[in-house]
Amino acid sequence: MAQKIDIAGIVMWNLGANADLKKLPRTRLSYDGQAADAPWRAQAMRQIEQHRKADILLSVTDSTGMPFEVNLKRHAFSFATFIEDSSPRPRDRSSG
Length: 96
Description:
two-stranded antiparallel sheet, 1 helix, little secondary structure
């Protein structure tokens, strides 16, 4: 069964080819059951295989509706996805 997903409000920054990603701020997330061998993980992986994986065809358009091609080189998440409910805001580096 085909599904349609509308995604909006995404912010992307081009930091340039020479950006030092290690200097970007990071927040360490932690939770109970975080260990790689936590008991809940085996069941979760079975459910992911059964319920959350499927082929997808994604059409991407610019603000004028013109399509363009996006190639996924590698995904950034080894297990799941974390989505924060607030958009990142660039900080004015001159103000510290």
